[in-house]
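To: structure desk
From: M.T.
Subject: fold request, one chain
Message: Could you run this one when you get a chance? Sequence is below, nothing fancy, just the single chain.
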Amino acid sequence: MTVALVTGSSRGIGRAIAQRLAADGADLVVNYRTDRAAADEVVAGIEAKGGKAIAVQADVADPGQLRGLFDAAERFGPLDVLVSNVGVARFAPIAEASDEDFDLVFATNTRATLGVLREGAKRVRDGGRIISISSGAAVTLRVGGGVYGASKAASDVLVQTAAKELGPRGITVNSVRPGSTRTDGLESVMSAERLRQSAEATPLGRIGEPGDIADVVAFLASDDARWITGQILHAGGGLF
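Reply: Done. Structure tokens follow.
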């Protein structure tokens, strides 16, 4: 039996990852922050296909709630796969970036990633898998994306360092950088015109779908990826 915990998995990319790992035979811990109905829907969908899943509420930016999430996951079974999927975006030119937005973005994207990695280092079994969801914004360096991109780039450094620290235990740690991916979050901050432009700028000619990212994560979680660690996989259709 494989037990997987996916943070932020009630919607979007996290939801697709949870569903794909369940399809591959893992028992899932579905984490949500506020949307219990969406998390229950994910669990019900997994169970309808013969899988096992539970929904656990926790704000992963809160260290106490994060520890509680891992406690609940361990009651489900020893943790084999951990996917850190956290993120909030605020966009503004550097000259207009506020301290409040910086604090929010780094607390959610970077500090929460540190917390997930810290707990994962203590709780994922030897030979397990840890995968963090980053962003292409860490390398595309677009106007207005400095704070968000910096928070994700910093998270990638934490991932690569954890790979060196956990390697002796046979735990692989990798990061996936999605490009523009069709989620409610993306569509709330990008106009239809900008989405069209992003699709045209992508060599494969379209916006990514959550399932595209989930398939990459599933590979990294599998035994086929046993010799891959400390890597940042670009999953943006060639956009970067």
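Reply (cont.): The chain has a mean pLDDT of 95. Let me know if you need anything else for the meeting.
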